[in-house]
Structures are given as structure tokens and as C-alpha cells.
Amino acid sequence: MQASDSKEVSREIVVPGDLLDSSGKRAGPGTYIEGRNIFAALLGIKTVRQDTVGVVPLSGQYMPERGDMVVGKIEDVSASNWLVDINAPYPAPLHVNEVPWRVEFGETSKFMVPGDVVLLKVVGIDETRRIQVSMKEHGLRKLTGGMILDISPSKVPRVIGKNGSMIQMLKNATGCRIYVGQNGRIWIDGELDDIIKAVKAVKLIEEEAHNMGLTEKIKRLLEEGSRKGE
Amino acid sequence: MGGMTTDIKLIDENGRRVDGRTPEEMRPLKIEAGVLKRADGSAYVEWGLNKVLAAVYGPRECHPRHMQNPTRALVQCKYNMAAFSVDDRKRPGPDRRSQEISKITSEALSHVVFTEYFPRASIDVYVEVLQANAGTRCAGLTAASVALADAGVPMRDLVASCAAGKAAGVVMVDLGKEEDNFGEADIPVGYVPRTKEIVLLQMDGDLTHDEYTKGLDMAIKGCEKVYDIQRDALRRRYEARSLDSEIGAPEGVQKEVA
Lengths: 230, 258
Description:
heterodimer, A: alpha+beta, CATH 2.40.50.100, CATH 2.40.50.140, Ribosomal Protein S8, Chain: A, domain 1, 4-stranded mixed sheet, 4 helices, 16 strands, flat, B: alpha+beta, Ribosomal Protein S5, domain 2, 5-stranded mixed sheet, 5-stranded antiparallel sheet, 11 strands, 28% strand, globular
């Protein structure tokens, strides 16, 4: 998903129903097969890598996948669960066994209440799309302070960049602490001026995600900001 | 249909229609994708004097819960005509006609959406008719399918829609208001161009078998033209979209209440 900068020669935009291949390639994500033909199922950019054709979506809802790190908002509290909104079409219950604290039955609201923001990991999603999330792994926690920025989930790979290069550049230039959830929610904390700079940069990435020379543009924006600040 | 009489000449000596078109000619069609910021996907269609806006939300949790289908997503369309969309004020709110159009649009779209990818969810489509001049169900379906693709909903193909009919004894495509009101028949068609499937077919009025076959052929040809314009609209959305990006920069930024 992230390696879309260099390898792509063609940046052909495809529409649902477009024929992508009939030479026996393998069908990648965002496609469907009928007979020997592969068709696009999504509005996106056609990508060919080795023997696989796929479509990188330009829009769309977040669909959770096992291992995704997401930023969630607590929606509701019950005796042994928190209901978390992770920006997916389905609710994500967070069980008391999946949090790093020992929570007595019925005492859930002493730990987290609706409105709290948490960093979670999707530990499972089955074919009936029931989601399991956990907060037990290292680094997962309740997030306090900072701000939340919502972007289109299809742009998340561009915000992170190749091997995290883009997000690293953002962190270095602004000095902010940033978590990018796979669900398109970004948590940013730092000095107010730095947050504003980071938000601006993320917005620009979202707008220009499918254009060439994105890294250069962001670099310029960040340098411009720091010069003014001195 | 056919019951009303008029002194309007629906076809003149030269075989031209009231608005100067030939029987095979469609009204000008313009489509724009991604016109609404708040919706997940949207489209605006101007088809002759018709102006239709479509917005898509989802896939999202289905409410009310009892409507959920454990194996697939629901495509729920709501078609609505604005009070100011017609000459006499249209009484606002759902009526028999708009319920029917909502239902047939939902059913036509369900055939192309991969609903099995989103069990228990609902994909909500809202079609708002801002100005009506015959053929709004076709315009609505055309807009809705572009909006769905814009929302990133996985689909087998787009649905294109166009009508044909008969007025003053002549079979013609894409009836205008006078032809619809005073003509003999109207056949709206929803068509999946890739597989050549028909996902919407209605008929209002009477036609002989030959007239019907000819009309259906014309409507399908119309659908194919619509399809090209739909695809073009979707491609344009991402080829040049720097214009609308300036509006409202820090939206979506919320201060966290810790």
C-alpha cells in the first residue's frame, strides 16, 4: 500500500467496472474476477506489481484489519465493556480483560467514560465483521491532551509514508507527539504553534495524496514554518 | 398517461420535438462528482432542466437494528422532491410516488454493490430533486450510482439510466415534460453496461410489442451515453480537484475534552 511513490509508472484512474487485465494476472485488492477477466471494484488508481493487479482506493470507509493500530473514542460504558467508536461501519467492544488495569465488574466507568480517547489495536475481525480490540499491548493507552484530526482513511498510508518516513519528518520538524491510527484518526500533542503546523501539513498531505512530488511539498511547508518561527 | 389532450404539437412537420430535438436525441447531460464535503460520496446531475443531487453515507451501522441483514449490507435510498422543484408547490414529505422511486432505486443499486462485504451494515443514499422536468428517477439513479462510486463503495459496475417513450405516435428517447405529460408511454430503464443487465424497467402507458422493443433499444443506447459521462465525471474528480480544497481548512479538528 505504501510503496506507491517510485514503482508506479502509470497512474491510471479506474472506475468500478473497468477491465484491468485479461492475461491471467492475479487479482489484488479492490478488484473482482469474472471468467479470466479482472475488473475494478473501486474508484482508484490501478497498480500492477509483479503478477498482481489491484486498485488503490481514492476514497472509502475504514475497514478494520487484524493488527491495525487505531485511535478510538469511547461511546458507551457497560458493566464489563466499553463501546469504542473506531470509525468503522461496526461497533468495537473493548472488554475489561483487554485493558492493562484490573477492573472489577461494574466499575468500568471509574477508568474510562464516554468521550475519552484511546489508542487500541485490532486483535481480530471475523467474516461476520465482529471486531475485537485490545489495549493490552506495549504502547497502547488512554490518550490525554493534544488534539484529534480526522482524515480520509484511504490517505493514511501517505501520511505515514514509506517505512514511516513522512510521519518521522513531521515529528522531527514539529517536535509533536503524533499517533496515526489506521482508521484515519490522528492524535497530535505538543506546543500549540507546533500542533497548528502539524495539522496544516497533514491537511496538505490529505489533499495532495495522489499527486507526485508530495514529500518535497511537505518538506518546503515545514521549513517555511520553522524559518518564520525563528 | 394518454388521457390528457393538448394543442401542443409534440412533433412538427420536420420530425422535430418541442425542444427541437430529433427522436433519437437526448437532452444535454452534465455530471459532477464529489460536490458535498460532509457526505462520504456525492454527485450533482443536470439533465436538461432536471437538477438532482445525490449523497451517500456509509457503509455504516444499520438503524433500526431489526432491519439489519446478517449476511449483507442494505442499500437504503431516499428519494425526495424539493417543494420548489415543480411549477405548483410540491407538498413536502414522503408520498406514494417517492416511496416507489426510493424502492426501485435501492433495488437497482443493490444489484451492483458488493453488499456481501458489509454484513449488518447499511449504505444510505439520498437523492434530492431540486428541479424536475420529467425523467427524475433516471437522473436520480444516475446520480446515485456516481455518488456510490465516489464514496468508495465496492461495486461491480455503475448503473446508467435513461428513459424512452412514445409521444404523438413517435417512439423517442429521454422524454421532456410535455412529452411525458401528453404523450402515450414512458419506459425508464436502469442498465449495467458491462454485463448488459437491466436493473430497472418500468412502463407507464401502452405500446405495441414492436414499439416497446424499439423504445427499449433506444433507452439502452441512451444509457450507454450516460455511462460514458458518469465515468468521465468520476475521473475528473481526481484529475483536477485543487479548486474546492481551499474551503474550510481546519474542519474536522476538534479539541479533545480530556
